[in-house]
Specification:
One of its GO terms (molecular function) is ADP-dependent NAD(P)H-hydrate dehydratase activity. With about 280 residues, the chain is of the alpha/beta class. Helices cover about 45% and strands about 15% of the residues. The structure holds ligand NPW, adenosine-5'-diphosphate (ADP) and magnesium ion.
């Protein structure tokens, strides 16, 4: 298992070319946030925008629109119940993040099935939270894409892989990740990343991160990094490491870290490593 260190940041985060514009840095949609879990998709969207994605649209329950814009006027909004608009938006982006706060009811299932049908070979798909649980519960097939990444916590991984938490060892995890055809970010206090060819273990992170919304924030960062950096494995690895390394910095003087505080630090953190 390869130890993931800050070396991945200098290998991945690039200085921005002068002759660039928002389109250079990728278009992302984030889909999730039902009436009860609006915070999840807002935290994920914050992380995407603060990671530097060029254009971000949040597709969520209409009841979340005002909160979204009070936190993040940079994000555009679309109503998750307008499936025609959702279809147009999904087809127009580089990266789709689906799952934070999506919920697991029939409406959420319909949206997920539609997105899995729409996604193309030119797009990156980030599957988190409720979307992982829905895929597991309904045995949905993960389609071919340019690149797919799953970001389960251990219980979500148990659901989708069939491997009980106590049996989640690298050999078994690796086999299932390959069967799923996706990079798997298996989150824990020592997150492991299963890419097509290698297994990495995160060396950063702190128990000060153990609070609701921390994984939603990581999903948004993965989306934002994948939108900007061509090497998708490196983008995922750099997002995972940055998320935890920022937490380590904050934990020097905080007992607990709120997920949105990670997002607020991303621009300064990335600037230190851009080359
Ligand atoms: N502010 C918001 O809107 C927020 C919205 N959120 C959204 O809620 C949705 C549901 O996501 P979820 O993770 O909260 O619930 P679920 O998938 O049922 O998993 C929990 C079950 O698994 C178990 N468990 C075992 N090991 C575990 C581990 N390592 N890490 C975590 N859990 C572990 C755990 O055991 P227990 O804690 O009971 O010991 C429990 O039985 C999802 O869409 C998410 O985005 C949240 O992000 C919160 C903030
Ligand atoms: N003790 C810990 N040490 C390091 N990282 C942790 C710890 N506890 C939780 N985390 C991190 O917090 C995130 C939790 O993700 P998840 O359970 O999906 O949260 P949520 O769904 O509430 O957003 C993961 O990135 C995980 O690695
Ligand atoms: Mg989660």
């Amino acid at each position: 298992m390869i130890k993931l260190t800050d070396q991945i940041l200098t290998e991945t985060i690039r200085k921005r070319p002068l002759d660039s514009y928002k389109g250079t840095y990728g278009k992302v949609v984030l889909i999730g946030g039902n009436h009860n879990f609006g915070g999840a998709i807002i935290m994920a969207s914050l992380a995407t925008v603060y990671s530097g994605a060029g254009l971000t649209t949040t597709i969520t329950d209409a009841s979340n629109q005002t909160s979204l814009h009070s936190w993040l006027p940079e994000a555009m909004f679309a109503d998750i119940n307008d499936l025609e608009q959702l279809t147009q938006l999904v087809l127009s982006v580089d990266v789709i993040v689906i799952g934070p706060g999506l919920g697991t009811d029939a409406k959420a299932l319909t949206v997920l099935q539609l997105v899995l049908k729409l996604v193309t070979l030119k797009q990156t798909l980030v599957i988190d939270g409720s979307a992982i649980t829905l895929i597991a519960n309904h045995r949905l097939i993960i389609p071919q894409t340019k690149y797919t990444v799953l970001t389960p916590h251990q219980m979500e991984w148990q659901r989708i892989s069939g491997i009980a938490i106590k049996d989640q060892h690298p050999d078994q995890n690796w086999l299932v990740a390959h069967q799923l055809g996706a990079t798997v970010v298996l989150k824990s206090h020592q997150t492991e990343i299963y890419t097509d060819t290698k297994i990495y273990q995160n060396t950063a992170g702190t128990p000060a991160q153990a609070t609701g919304g921390m994984g939603d924030t990581l999903a948004g960062m993965v989306g934002g990094f994948c939108a900007q950096f061509a090497n998708q494995d490196n983008a995922v690895l750099a997002a995972v490491f940055s998320h935890s390394a920022i937490a380590n910095q904050l934990a020097q003087c905080q007992y607990v870290i709120l997920p949105h505080q990670i997002s607020q630090q991303i621009p300064q953190f990335m600037a230190k490593y851009a080359n």
